[in-house]
């Protein structure tokens, strides 16, 4: 992800087609060792894909077809509770409450 971020920073900075050396210099400027193989993999995956705007638009179309898991799992939980799964629903609520508790961390937000 850091290599893609560096690529995007370079394109926003005016470089139309950043090179491996450009990406490497951005990564190493923050004190992180750059992996040449990962940089080359990124560049080869972007090669011949068109402009960055076209790649982003294509990705947005792909994400639009991905179902969101939150609504389906909430519906399944409600259906299970209606079908006599009250104990399971109570257990799930207790588990969520425990996860949200600050006691597990040893301090509270306003301590």
TrEMBL record:
<feature type="region of interest" description="Disordered">
    <location>
        <begin position="70"/>
        <end position="111"/>
    </location>
</feature>
<dbReference type="Pfam" id="PF00428">
    <property type="entry name" value="Ribosomal_60s"/>
</dbReference>
<dbReference type="GO" id="GO:0003735">
    <property type="term" value="F:structural constituent of ribosome"/>
</dbReference>
<comment type="function">
    <text>Component of the ribosome, a large ribonucleoprotein complex responsible for the synthesis of proteins in the cell. The small ribosomal subunit (SSU) binds messenger RNAs (mRNAs) and translates the encoded message by selecting cognate aminoacyl-transfer RNA (tRNA) molecules. The large subunit (LSU) contains the ribosomal catalytic site termed the peptidyl transferase center (PTC), which catalyzes the formation of peptide bonds, thereby polymerizing the amino acids delivered by tRNAs into a polypeptide chain.</text>
</comment>
<feature type="compositionally biased region" description="Acidic residues">
    <location>
        <begin position="88"/>
        <end position="105"/>
    </location>
</feature>
<keyword id="KW-0689">Ribosomal protein</keyword>
<comment type="subunit">
    <text>Component of the large ribosomal subunit (LSU). Mature yeast ribosomes consist of a small (40S) and a large (60S) subunit. The 40S small subunit contains 1 molecule of ribosomal RNA (18S rRNA) and 33 different proteins (encoded by 57 genes). The large 60S subunit contains 3 rRNA molecules (25S, 5.8S and 5S rRNA) and 46 different proteins (encoded by 81 genes). The 5 acidic ribosomal P-proteins form the stalk structure of the 60S subunit. They are organized as a pentameric complex in which uL10/P0 interacts with 2 heterodimers, P1A-P2B and P1B-P2A.</text>
</comment>
<keyword id="KW-0687">Ribonucleoprotein</keyword>
<protein>
    <recommendedName>
        <fullName>60S acidic ribosomal protein P2</fullName>
    </recommendedName>
</protein>
<dbReference type="GO" id="GO:0002182">
    <property type="term" value="P:cytoplasmic translational elongation"/>
</dbReference>
<dbReference type="GO" id="GO:0022625">
    <property type="term" value="C:cytosolic large ribosomal subunit"/>
</dbReference>
<dbReference type="InterPro" id="IPR027534">
    <property type="entry name" value="Ribosomal_P1/P2"/>
</dbReference>
<dbReference type="InterPro" id="IPR044076">
    <property type="entry name" value="Ribosomal_P2"/>
</dbReference>
<dbReference type="InterPro" id="IPR038716">
    <property type="entry name" value="P1/P2_N_sf"/>
</dbReference>
<comment type="similarity">
    <text>Belongs to the eukaryotic ribosomal protein P1/P2 family.</text>
</comment>
